[in-house]
Amino acid sequence: MTSAVVEAEGLSKSFGPVAAVSAFSLTLNRGEMLCLVGPDGAGKTTAVRMLSGIIRPTSGTARVFGFDLVRESDKVKKYIGYMSQRFTLYGDLTVDENIEFFAEIHQVRRFQGRREELLAFTRLEPFRRRLADKLSGGMKQKLSLACTLVHTPDLLLLDEPTTGVDVVSRREFWTILRNLLDSGITILMTTPYMDEAERGTRVALMDRGSIVVIDAPDKVKALMKDPIVEVITDDPRAAAATLRDLPEVLDIQAFGDRLHLIMRSLDPGLQAVEGRLAEGAIKIGRWRRVSPSLENVFISLTRARGSGS
Burial level of 55, CB count in 10 A (0-12/13-18/19+)? Predict the structure, then answer.
């Protein structure tokens, strides 16, 4: 097996005339967590399903642990654990029974010891005799993960594992993922949450089926060279409309009651912003310079792609 866990080159997948993924290329190294992030419809799920061997690519190649993803898919599957974004376990089976069922599917003999480890690891031991349908959203995700781990995979492919669960459950799930990374497992996960993506070793921003940029989170954020000013006003929508054509403002990104202004320069630009808002009788509650976030970078890059620049 090669030193790289995943080597994908030009993977594409079309469903009829619709190209879900186009020219998807990445290398995933042992022991790292790569987060694929992007909006719904960006192609994240399709990319992960291709890498898991569930669907065949229309074109392109990929090797997982040195095995060809298409020609040697049976060899690939024993090394990977795939967890879909929807709860796909059996609601009329208990926690114990679900883990046992997936152990049998993966031909894990004498699984009882492994099940005890997983129940303790996911903190599901007190709920082992509860039906899966009676679990909370966070517990269902942890049970799904336990079933995914029952055959001790070396690579985890997780498709939006924390979507729809509460904040506390998300935090607990991330503690589990960190412990898995410490044990040497490699993780590729998709997420719509930019704050989650920042926790990865690397992040890949996806838009309309393609990877826009892939690098360490800090290096991706460093792509934003222009200063960013966060402005809170009494009418953010009117403020955005007022500032839209101001030459000193390169871009405006709205986040609730806050506006992030991408500026050509700081001091002259702020004077121009204050003057234009004063003309429109729009009051600035407060403003501050902020560091770029992944969301700032993603919005800027996707807008640039949309404009053809």
Answer: middle
- pLDDT (tens digit per residue) in 118-175: 999 999 999 999 999 999 988 999 999 999 999 999 999 999 998 888 888 888 889 9
Give the confidence band of 305 by pLDDT, cuts at 50, 70, 90. Answer: confident
Specify the 3-state DSSP secondary structure of 285. Answer: strand
* 296 touches 260 (CB < 8 A): yes
What is the bridge-based pairing of β-strands 33-37 and 186-191?
Answer: parallel
How do the domains of the chain map onto residue ranges?
A: 4-219, 228-291
What is the C-alpha separation between 193 and 202, in angstroms, rounded?
Answer: 14
- Gap between the Cα atoms of 176 and 119, Å rounded: 12
Does this model's pTM top 0.90? My answer is: no
Kindly provide the b/e burial profile for residues 174-207, where b requires at least 16 CB atoms within 10 angstroms of the residue's own CB.
Answer: eebbeebbeeebbbbbbbbbbebbbbbbbbbbbb
Say which CATH topology domain 4-219 has. Answer: Rossmann fold (3.40.50)
Domain 228-291 is found in CATH 3.30.70.100: yes
How many C-beta atoms surround the C-beta of residue 81 within 10 A? 23
C-alpha 102/C-alpha 151 separation (Å) is 8
Quote the mean pLDDT of the chain: 91
Q: Choose among 226, 290, 217, 302: nearest CA to 259.
A: 290
